[in-house]
């Protein structure tokens, strides 16, 4: 019996959340506009091309110890 109330309230909360997101983000009830970096496809393509052109370098893998806040370099058996 209580399952129908739980499921109904969950569905209702999702509807309310979607409506709030739609009106704030898409309708822009608080004003503002979409930035050009989001709406301009050419800018996105140029940015993606730039990111793919960067050389990717990385150091050796590390193990993080959050308690002592020390990072240890992992030694592999082949080195």
UniProtKB/TrEMBL annotation:
<dbReference type="Pfam" id="PF06592">
    <property type="entry name" value="DUF1138"/>
</dbReference>
<protein>
    <recommendedName>
        <fullName>Ozone-responsive stress-related protein</fullName>
    </recommendedName>
</protein>
<dbReference type="InterPro" id="IPR009515">
    <property type="entry name" value="DUF1138"/>
</dbReference>
């Amino acid at each position: 019996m209580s399952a129908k109330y739980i499921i109904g309230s969950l569905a209702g909360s999702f509807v309310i959340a979607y409506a709030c997101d739609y009106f704030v983000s898409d309708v822009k009830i608080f004003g503002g506009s979409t930035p050009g970096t989001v709406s301009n496809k050419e800018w996105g393509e140029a940015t993606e091309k730039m990111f793919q052109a960067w050389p990717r370098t990385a150091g050796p893998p590390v193990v993080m110890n959050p308690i002592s806040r020390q990072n240890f370099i992992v030694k592999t058996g082949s080195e």
